[in-house]
Amino acid sequence: MNVTTRPTIGDSRLAARLRRETRGEVLFAPADRGRYATDASIYQIEPYGVLVPRTIEDVQAAMAICREEGIPVLPRGGGTSQCGQTVNRALVLDCTKYLRDVIAVDAAAGTARVQPGIALGALNDALKAHGLFFPVDPSTWQRCTIGGMAGNNSCGSKSIRYGLMADNVTAIDALLADGSRFTFGDLPDNLGGDIPAPAAELIQRLRALGAREAEEIAARFPNQLRRVGGYNIESLTPAARAEGRGNLARLLVGSEGTLAFSAALDLKLWPIKPRKALGICQFPTFRAAMAASQHLVTLDPEAVELVDRTMIDLGRSIPIYRATIDRMVKGEPDSLLIVEFHGQEDAPLLRALDRLEEMMADLGYPDAVVRATDAGFQAAIAEVREAGLNIMMSMKGDGKPVSFIEDCAVALPDLADYTERLNDVFAKHGTKGTWYAHASVGCLHVRPVLNMKDGEDVRKMRAIAEECFALVREYKGSHSGEHGDGIVRSEFNEPMFGPRIARAFEEVKDSFDPNALLNPGRVVRPPRMDDRSLFRYAPGYAADAKVTPVLDWSEHPGPLGGLLGAVEMCNNNGTCRKFDANVMCPSFRATRDERHLTRGRANTLRLALTGQLGPDALASDEVAAAMELCVSCKGCKRECPTGVDMARMKIEVLAARANRHGIGWRERIVATLPRWARFASLLPPLANARDTIPGLAALSERLLGLAAERSLPRFAWGAFHDAELRAPDGRDGEVILLPDAFNRYFEPENLRAAIRVLRAAGYDPAVARPPRGMRPLDEGRTLLAAGLVDRAREEARRTVEALSAWTSPVIGIEPSSLTTLRDEFLALLPGEAARALAARAFLLSEFLEREKAALPLKPIDGEAHIHGHCHQKAFGTFPPAVALLKRIPGLKVSPIASSCCGMAGAFGYQAETLAASKAMGELALLPAVRAAAPTAFIVADGTSCRHQISDLAGREALHSVRLLDRALA
Questions:
Q1: What is the tens place of the pLDDT at every residue in 291-312?
Q2: 292: Cβ–Cβ under 8 A, 6 or more apart, which residues?
Q3: What's the confidence (pLDDT) of residue 389?
Q4: What are the CA-CA distances from residue 438 to residues 12, 188, 408 (Å)?
Q5: Which end of the chain is more exposed for a tag (fewer CB within 10 A), N or C?
Q6: What's the 3-state SS for 499-559?
């Protein structure tokens, strides 16, 4: 190939060829490339483009094209790599959307064959029916893929019991750089004639290398379970083959996509142990915890995991983890060790906890174990532990815990001395480290706090790395104990293993991939780890000074009033890719597209705010496309461990778009609904004509983009008027009801039921009057959704003025409206008045549960399935709604495990987002509603949620206050 004709980044000719010759999705736009330029490391390298292959044949075709065009190929899973394995100047192959099947399960043999893009969590869900699981369990199990885990030789907390990925992958169906395909597994010494000649020649060459270097391998490879640096060439030695450890899949495991593409992987499965017990050991000092680890592992636990003081404090600062952390600790320990025991029955596990308490007492720490034996507490602890990395990264500001010596491993007797000496190294360089994770195997995740935008701190990073790895060699440890080599550690393989082994690694690479097609520059021939041109925060990285935020971001330090700092809180670890029953991220769950992911949006915004997507990019079509399916659910505000608030960030994008382009008629109609709805409600038949007169729905779709197949909310006869309640005067027991536009004009019976329930609970409701004019108060939610921030700020000001005259609690019943007072008001009107109002604004169920208000309730026999509005979940107000309904005698209340309903205000009514709206609803909510008994109550406190359930499941859903009202004695 003539190098002068090699494709350039984003080359349209290459993109066109991929579209012609594959069935995959071809993503070559600047924002697409930018979203795949980063992983969870400190690096950013723009790829040529991205292919999302639908089939393995697409992968084969793409590799052939790249061979001909002279550009590298980079396989990618969840993009959660810490060391820069999944960023490169290459064509990225995103395997997570389509290549995620379980091909076969042999329960009797305890094996499975899977495609590389399946997430570990999805695999284990599929294996439950067989009573089996795959035991390698990184903290990113919800979103890391089996192919990526094999690439990194992942480990997880239970490696002391089950070993590493290399111990649990029995064969790999591999696509090689030359276009051939061969299954690497447990092959005999005498290769038969059924093995193709090129593969046989390759294997013989590799085994010859293993025989030649056997003595050097024995001398230089550390005797540590957690050794994942370099290539696993020890499996090529005669001794390994003689001992049954010569499976050639081991060589591909840990090779970081540099030797072959894994088309399918054969896995070793293990029986599920259904019971577990945890003991949380409290230590007064970090060194005491480290010294105790070698003794605790003699109790034969499944895992021993560290939580240090920094993680305790940061975890308490994050609302979703605070209660769990408080329950885990006794007093003010400096460090915790979480000791896990698993088994088939409870009694042996409880005896193991007894022995743990005895050992702790013998070590000088009596009464220092918190027992966790119920499943709910255990699940909450697991969530905290798994979020350890992200909890550490929740520090605000440019200084962050940086991954570059993160997972060195030493023998347990050396752990206390090693960690103490490493802390001294940090202190020498004016920083400190955060510690957590795998105390059971001497592999502690440690991250010094450094600023990667500062050249001096980058120099410190290199000095710390060199001194740390020198210590590791002194203790005969492993410099790479879990997260692999990537960019950050590959250059240290030669000092670690010696020049002879480093040349052997290069020989392996060249034998598989002589033209450096596959992820070059990783494991062998790497760039310098401190080459700042490869950094996410490269020299010259700076905010676009032309951007003027419309909201207050001062809680974050940094440029653009803190907006850029808020966006940079995304560390790319990909928690938003999870598929469990919480909210985040509904658009990604529906599409599996990186563009429609919280992480993808945050990367897009960071690039836009720093001029990497061109001038005025915040208002650009590319940024708008990234935000198109964001339903402002606020799931990320609560569930993202670093608190990336994409719903608030979307307002900045909408405002920038509105300022540059204005808004359309549809958006204007929806935005101003609270202004004109009071007039429309005077004659509901006319206001509802769109859905009653044939042809008008189709016309509304053509003219306004309102989906014809959707019914619009129906204006009710007898809208709620402020005159139905007195004005506030501060009397005892007063609460101020804040009617929202949706319930005021469409479902006024909900507001009237709320009044009856409040009175039955002993409260005297009032309605605040607007300070100016006759128009009722409005929180400005619909205006914000259109980017009309200045007008929304004026509505917020009217509301704050009206409500600040009184100190009574403010009660709402529509989650999206009420939580605006607690969230957006603080960004629209920063100051004491908005903060004071936010502190006394409650949803009705939240208030009654908080006050433990007595309600006279009669029995209702039956069952109620309750769906939580996204904002209820984001602000932790869904549990009170469930608890309040559970007070009704005879009523069985079951929360629906669901994400966003998919309606999300106007989102579900728009023709262009109708399909996405339906897909979100079908993920969990709508199937659950359809499965409910016909006599069961369906409960949803969100107006949009009720409409979605009615439209797509054909069931009436009630606001919880209506059910409470029905139960009033």
A1: 999 999 999 999 898 888 888 8
A2: 281, 283, 337, 360, 363, 365
A3: 63
A4: 46, 36, 11
A5: C
A6: HHHHHHHHHHHHHHCCCCCECCCCCCCCCCCCCHHHECCCCCCCCCCCCCCCCCCCCCCCC
